[in-house]
Automatic annotation (TrEMBL):
GO molecular function per UniProt: DNA binding
Domain of life, per lineage: Bacteria
Natural source organism: Psychrobacillus insolitus
Protein known as: Excisionase family DNA binding protein
Pfam family for this entry, one: HTH_17
Residue ranges of every copy of the Helix-turn-helix domain listed in the record: 2-48
């Protein structure tokens, strides 16, 4: 599915100017029809899944309680 630059910017929650810069730097592949650029949104699916998985892993790590160390002795 092809999306416009504005739709991709909303989809990725990024500024439109940054998307245009990425297209100019060839970091994002796009097709120009003479009026505007179209971007295949499938190229972001893997990236978005990886970002979501990483966020989930970080949340799990943050919510894991610190285990009590059995070797710690009260020196008082």
């Amino acid at each position: 599915m092809y999306m416009t630059v504005e739709e991709i910017a909303n989809y990725l929650s990024m500024p439109i100017e940054q998307i245009k810069r990425y297209i100019a730097e060839k970091k994002i592949r796009a097709i120009f029809d003479g009026e505007q650029y179209y971007v295949n949104s499938a190229q972001f699916e893997t990236h978005l899944h990886q970002v979501e998985d990483l966020k989930r892993q970080i949340d799990e790590w943050r919510n894991t309680p610190i285990p009590d160390d059995i070797d710690v002795k009260d020196e008082d």
